Amino acid sequence: NGTGAAVVEAPLAPVNLQQVDANDLDKIRELGRGQFGSVWMAKWLGVEVAVKELLGQNTPRARAEMYGEAEMLAALRHPCVIAIYGLVVNQEAPASVIEYVRGGSLKGGLQRLKQHGYAARRVRAAIALQAARGMEYLHSRRVVHFDLKCDNLLCDLRDLHRPVVKIGDLGLSKKKATTFVSGNMRGTLPWMAPELFPNASHLEDDQSEDRVTEKVDIFSFGMCMWEIWTLGDQPYPGLPLHEVFAGIMNGSLRPSRPPDCQDDWMEIMMPCWADEPASRPSFTEIAEALDRLVTVYE
Ligand code: ADE
Asked: Where along the chain is ATP bound (predicted)?
């Protein structure tokens, strides 16, 4: 760094979190396995929790990311955002201990509803409303999610009169959009706003980073609303990824109107996909519109 001083690695363990003793965790059943590790349903001194373990890619960088996500979650508290209880700070098997949400991912929950032929509009509006409330809270705390999709939402749909949805994975989230580094792709392709793509011709100027704001989450939320209405369909089935990429970027590709989709749902969903980020609504506006839908559908 030019000063001759040793570069000291930043402390990796967050300060404000309860440290959980791995011996107090009783792993019951694996819920999922991803690129970086696995998620377990476990009992922590007898209480149901979810445990996210880092496995395989357990590098200092992966650990720092896990602890970063944990610290961010620890500073947040909202009924529609997953709660974190603590961390197992252990070089070999670091893990975060979070709230267990019984239905698992909303994507799976929606698909189960579809199998059972269940599709009440009010339920779908109530599900979307909770996701919007969780996101409204994140944005109020200046957290941008960057990877909002139904796969990353958690649900409990046992009582469809009172569905529960929580923002469940903040792995890619950042405080304030300005921390975005261009060229560092964030998100999942069909859910990504056009301004997130590198080399977009209209973005090749110094303003490209300014264009990446919290409005990227609004674009993704429109995709979530489409997933919720279709009860877990995959957007653009069969379309090659490079065509999805090009289509989103030049504005020619947006999900088509699901058969049976009502105007009032379209009127909330479509503005989320505006090319111009500033033209997209806020989560407060979306939540208020969805709140009215829940009432109308009742
Ligand atoms: N899958 C991933 N995280 C989960 C959680 N917190 N609860 C239930 N299933 C999950």
From this structure: 52
